[in-house]
């Protein structure tokens, strides 16, 4: 072999070694919830980007918000004998039978971004999620600090009924504000994590609260509902971010656009990259037998109008929001 050929061969070998442990050979089925929010769209798009980086063959099934579609997708992935299944569970209950089927087929399941009931703990390998109770607590603490001693009536837009993140974000927020007698949640309803429902529910809150005069703050379980609520406030002649404070979760580009315009105050970031760590975990498990911890926690960052929202907006380009 000539020196040139030898160099080319070792360069190729070095490239192969740089890839995460044989991820290139994996076929993974991902049962995704749907596209209810900007964050969800980004999670789908980042999952594809992370799969491409690792040469994983990723098959995504969009469940259009229906658990029955997710169950069908999981059964189809089992029939295809994929190497692993990723599941973003729309609700937290009702998974036991289908996850038992995956376990019997020896296909590891990884939960992404949402949890299932503790009874199902033995049925999945690991969960890559944020601490959603903590996210709610961060939102509540920010609000308590911002309003100080002033009496403050809060309206809450909850996420999808039955979703782990909706229950947890409520719990975290309620616990944080319970320490402050001046803060009270006066109305709370689901907006199903969508912009349209967030707007609709906020309109009804404004009507019921004297045209919004008795509302001091809105807490939304995601930014998309908040973007809808901001629109409702503006249409009612209110100044969101000033007359009524806003705090929500996700850190999607549109909430930073609203912050730049002075119409939103705070958000708690949820990374859309849950799949990257999940691919690496599955590769290590399959190839080296490395058993991961039951929970791989992603970071939650509070971002406010004081944190250069234009820069945050710009940094989210190309992520599929
Ligand atoms: O499970 C994560 C949540 O689901 C996001 O915060 C929300 O935008 C999405 O719909």
Automatic annotation (TrEMBL):
UniProt keyword Disulfide bond present: no
Keyword Signal: yes
Comp. bias regions, Basic and acidic residues: 308-321
Positions in coiled-coil regions: none
Record Pfam families: Peripla_BP_4
Boundaries of every Periplasmic binding protein domain copy: 28-274
A GO term from the CC aspect: cell envelope
Signal peptide coordinates: 1-23
Subcellular location: Cell envelope
CDD domains assigned: PBP1_galactofuranose_YtfQ-like
Region (Disordered): 302-321
Membrane spanning residue stretches: none
Protein name: ABC transporter substrate-binding protein
MF GO annotations: carbohydrate binding
Predominant subcellular localization, coarse grouping: other
Record keywords, A-Z: Signal
Assigned protein family: Belongs to the bacterial solute-binding protein 2 family.
UniProt cross-references to InterPro entries, sorted A to Z: Peripla_BP_I, SBP_2_dom, YtfQ_transport
């Amino acid at each position: 072999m000539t020196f040139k050929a030898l160099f080319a061969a070792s360069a190729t070998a070095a490239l192969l070694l740089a890839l995460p442990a044989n991820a290139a050979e994996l076929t993974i089925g991902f049962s995704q919830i749907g596209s209810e929010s900007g964050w969800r769209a980004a999670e789908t798009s980042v999952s594809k980007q992370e799969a491409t980086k690792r040469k994983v063959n990723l098959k995504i099934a969009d469940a259009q918000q229906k658990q029955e579609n997710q169950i069908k997708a999981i059964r189809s992935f089992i029939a295809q004998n994929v190497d692993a299944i990723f599941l973003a569970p729309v609700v937290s209950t009702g998974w036991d039978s289908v996850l038992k089927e995956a376990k019997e087929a020896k296909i590891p399941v990884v939960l992404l971004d949402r949890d299932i009931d503790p009874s199902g703990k033995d049925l999945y390998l690991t969960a890559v999620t944020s601490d959603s109770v903590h996210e709610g607590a961060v939102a509540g603490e920010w609000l308590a600090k911002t309003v100080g001693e002033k009496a403050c009536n809060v309206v809450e837009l909850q996420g999808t009924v039955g979703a782990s993140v909706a229950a947890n974000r409520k719990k975290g927020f309620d616990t944080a504000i319970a320490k402050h007698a001046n803060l009270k949640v006066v109305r709370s309803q689901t907006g199903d994590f969508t912009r349209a429902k967030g707007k609709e529910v906020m309109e009804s809150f404004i009507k019921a609260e004297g045209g919004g005069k008795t509302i001091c703050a809105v807490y939304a379980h995601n930014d998309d509902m908040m973007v809808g609520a901001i629109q409702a406030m503006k249409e009612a002649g209110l100044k969101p971010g000033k007359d009524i404070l806003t705090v929500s979760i996700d850190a999607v580009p549109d909430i930073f656009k609203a912050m730049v315009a002075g119409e939103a105050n705070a958000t708690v970031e949820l990374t859309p990259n849950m799949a990257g760590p999940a691919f690496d975990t599955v590769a290590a498990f399959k190839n080296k037998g490395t058993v991961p911890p039951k929970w791989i926690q992603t970071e939650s960052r509070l971002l406010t109008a004081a944190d250069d929202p234009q820069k945050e907006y710009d940094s989210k380009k190309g992520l599929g929001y």
